[in-house]
Automatic annotation (TrEMBL):
PANTHER family: DELTA(14)-STEROL REDUCTASE, DELTA(14)-STEROL REDUCTASE TM7SF2. GO terms for biological process: cholesterol biosynthetic process. It is an enzyme of class 1 (oxidoreductase). It catalyses: 5alpha-cholest-8,14-dien-3beta-ol + NADPH + H(+) = 5alpha-cholest-8-en-3beta-ol + NADP(+); 4,4-dimethyl-8,14-cholestadien-3beta-ol + NADPH + H(+) = 4,4-dimethyl-5alpha-cholest-8-en-3beta-ol + NADP(+); 4,4-dimethyl-5alpha-cholesta-8,24-dien-3beta-ol + NADP(+) = 4,4-dimethyl-5alpha-cholesta-8,14,24-trien-3beta-ol + NADPH + H(+). The chain crosses the membrane at residues 17-37, 57-79, 100-123, 129-150, 255-273, 285-304, 355-379. This is Delta(14)-sterol reductase TM7SF2. It is a multi-pass membrane protein. Pathway: Steroid biosynthesis; cholesterol biosynthesis. Keywords: Cholesterol biosynthesis, Cholesterol metabolism, Endoplasmic reticulum, Lipid biosynthesis, Lipid metabolism, Membrane, Oxidoreductase, Steroid biosynthesis, Steroid metabolism, Sterol biosynthesis, Sterol metabolism, Transmembrane, Transmembrane helix. It is found in: Endomembrane system; Endoplasmic reticulum membrane; Microsome membrane. GO terms for cellular component: endoplasmic reticulum membrane; nuclear inner membrane.
């Protein structure tokens, strides 16, 4: 069932034409959301209230602010880490080393921002800067992706990603040619994956909360819930930073425009959509409904964290007492596939938890507008597509063992579906 030695995997995302379309569609969607979130009608499917001109989007000061933010996070990345972890084995049998200090970066960023606010930093004005900041992030992502593509042209064949080496420059620029682009020990993909975008996301949320407090005297309960839920999600990701080393983004995908734009621009400016919506469209939320939403988020988090922790524990040490009793399926590669516990319920229980949390983040925004539910719709499409990519990759890698796993666990994300 494995692919022939040396063969390239099939093109994804619609090939070069699909990649070119996504490079236009994703930034356009991000700017559309930023514009309609602050408009009166807030229609997800309607036209934006206006099309901003270059004088609105381009700001040298915002570009400098964005580069300063990236520089701050890069400096925190280089600080001594509480732990240094090894990644998965590469083609040349080596293993790269990664600093595990993302949570430390989050805490230090919070302290620095807190001190700056006490010193008079007008953080509540940040929401008015989102358009030019998003433009600066998009411009940075394009230039950064070009530099990564040029760097990959002189990289050895062993350093290239399985899928980003098609020979088509548009497709390879989008997907990324080099698997782990580095300068000395600084790993660009690993740095961008969790730090500038995720920490920037919670900072934007905080700024939106502070501006709501300035406008209305106090933040609404809905705004508090959105901030709290999403801060928990980001803090969890950074506390379990080592787990990202086994994800598809790190082990399989190259680092090109897809991940660079997603990490640096899409995440902070699109994932903060619910808080943006609440600032301009306040929603009344009673304690009974808030309690139900909190319970939903807790259930989603329990499933998400339980499934991911079980998987990561098993990958690091199958003899660990917490996973040693789980049933497995042997594969020709020597690895085992979990077929009980969380991973015996559905093939991707972590995605199920993710989707439940996504719905909990949107419900504080009420049900009068579709716009706040964009994240749920987008994330569902993303995870379904990601699940399909993972299925094909596992079928090529594990062959008959994967077919047996699919027979034993027929449900992909939702139980009984």
């Amino acid at each position: 069932m494995a692919s022939p030695q040396g063969s390239r995997p099939p093109l994804e995302f619609g090939g070069p034409l699909g990649a070119a379309a996504l490079m236009l569609l994703l930034p356009a969607t991000m700017f559309h959301l930023l514009l309609v979130a602050r408009s009166g009608p807030a229609r997800l499917l309607g036209p934006p209230p206006y099309l901003p001109g270059p004088e609105v989007l381009w700001s040298p000061q915002m570009l400098l602010l964005w580069l300063t933010w990236l520089g701050l996070q890069a400096a925190l990345y280089l600080l001594p880490a509480r732990k240094v972890a090894e990644g998965q084995e590469l083609k040349d049998k080596s293993r790269l080393r990664y600093p595990i200090n993302g949570f430390q970066a989050l805490v230090l960023t919070a302290l620095l921002v807190g001190l700056a606010v006490c010193a008079g930093l007008p953080l509540g004005e940040l929401p008015e800067m989102l358009l030019p900041l998003a433009f600066a992030a998009t411009l940075t992502a394009f230039i950064f992706s070009l530099l990564l593509y040029l760097k990959a042209l002189v990289a050895p064949a062993s350093a290239l990603a399985p899928g980003g080496n098609s020979g088509n420059p548009i497709y390879d620029f989008f997907l990324g040619r080099e698997l782990n682009p580095r300068i000395w020990s600084f790993d660009f993909k690993y740095f961008c994956e969790l730090r500038p975008g995720l920490i920037g996301w919670v900072l934007i949320n905080l700024a939106l909360l502070m501006q709501e407090a300035e406008l209305r005297g106090t933040p609404s309960l809905a705004m508090w819930l959105v901030n709290g839920f999403q801060l928990l999600y980001v803090a969890d990701a950074l506390w379990h930073e080592e787990a990202v080393l086994t994800t598809m983004d790190i082990t399989h995908d190259g680092f090109g425009f897809m991940l660079a734009f997603g990490d640096l621009a899409w995440v902070p400016f699109t994932y903060s959509l619910q808080a943006q919506f609440l600032l301009h469209h306040p929603q009344a939320l009673g304690l009974p409904m808030a309690s139900v939403i909190c319970l939903m988020n807790a259930v989603g988090y329990y499933i998400f964290r339980g499934a991911n922790s079980q998987k990561n524990t098993f990958r690091k040490n199958p003899s660990d007492p917490r996973v040693a009793g789980l049933e497995t399926i042997p594969t020709a590669t020597g690895r085992q596939l979990l077929v009980s516990g969380w991973w015996g319920m559905v093939r991707h229980p972590n995605y199920l938890g993710d989707l439940i949390m996504a719905l909990a983040w949107s419900l504080p925004c009420g049900v009068s507008h579709l716009l706040p539910y964009f994240y749920v719709l987008y994330f569902t499409a993303l995870l379904v597509h990601r699940e399909a990519r993972d299925e094909q990759q596992c079928l090529r890698k594990y062959g008959l063992a994967w077919r047996e796993y699919c027979r034993r666990v027929p449900y992909r994300i939702l139980p009984y579906v």
